[in-house]
């Protein structure tokens, strides 16, 4: 005996008419409620929602899009190579915060990775197709073309991290969420000073990202007359931190402290210090930035670092974007949210 046909199963799905009959309202009323339209009194909304739940009705996505002019999807664009995104816990934490908040707004996350400038055309075509309601973009670089692409297609957007350099002509102000990179870096260096350290080095992040530049500025705020030879460039990776630490030890073997611009570089620096026979924290104190617990608590000794609420920042980005999408006047009054940082003291400094 054969089972029901595919068409029969499809036809057995609850219809708008069935929901209307169960709720005792018109089909048009049901359509407005389930597709997000306005103008329906709350008692009728409650009746319709009860009928939807009882019948297991699933709204038609195409119809909902026509009514609300929304796709129920948000693009998350990360301008970093794939290996960085999947090896750096910073990105997974920020995406987790974004995903959790989007779920509360019944919206899907669409992840777009940008491996290089050649991917800009692909991203532009996707945005031009109108597939998403808005964009969340982070890990931008100072010469980044993504903000211009997003503006060209007039897609509502919120950025993770401040786009551009302070005082630079980088186009109109855009909404963004960032942490107090400069203040957090200054707090880290002040902590090392209070420990009596006098030859404090800094492993900087990539100079084409505002977070790295701000952390250099925070270091210089505390040590304005410091030795330029105590600053070396890294790239926010373990290997970059290791290379910079080796360079610093070769150049300034008498250094007694290091502030690394993120925890991954701090862990690379710690490895090199151990290889060179330098005791942490007795001979060299070490502080990182981010408080990636999977790194900071796993190092030996555990890493003193500056905490930023990465997951919370992802949630804030979504809330700002939803404000832009729901504000008929054209946007949220806030163009920037700067979240506080906190020094977390462990055994490395």
Give an overview of the whole structure.
This protein is an alpha/beta fold and about 350 residues long. The protein contains 15 helices and 12 strands. It has helices spanning about 5-10, 15-25, 25-35, 40-55, 60-70, 80-85, 90-105, 120-130, 145-150, 180-195, 210-220, 240-250, 265-275, 295, 310-325; strands at about 75-80, 110-115, 135-140, 155-160, 175-180, 200-205, 230-235, 255-260, 285-290, 305, 335-340, 340-345. The protein has a 6-stranded parallel beta sheet with strand order 2-1-3-4-5-11, with helices on one face. A 6-stranded mixed beta sheet has the order 7-6-8-9-10-12, sandwiched between helices. Helix 11 links the parallel strand 6 and strand 7. Helix 2 packs across helix 3 (about 25-35), helix 3 crosses helix 4 and helix 7 (about 90-105) packs parallel to helix 15 (about 310-325). It is elongated and about 80 Å long. About 40% of the residues are buried. Mean pLDDT is about 85; it is low at about 1-10, about 165-170 and about 330.
Topology:
Blueprint: H1 6-11, H2 16-23, H3 27-34, H4 42-55, H5 61-68, E1 73-78, H6 82-87, H7 89-104, E2 108-113, H8 120-128, E3 134-138, H9 146-152, E4 157-160, E5 176-179, H10 181-194, E6 200-204, H11 210-222, E7 231-233, H12 238-251, E8 257-260, H13 263-275, E9 285-290, H14 293-296, E10 304-307, H15 310-326, E11 336-339, E12 342-344
Parallel strand pairs: 1-2, 1-3, 3-4, 4-5, 5-11, 6-7, 6-8, 8-9, 9-10
Antiparallel strand pairs: 10-12
Helix pairs in contact: 2-3, 2-4, 3-4, 7-15, 10-11, 12-13
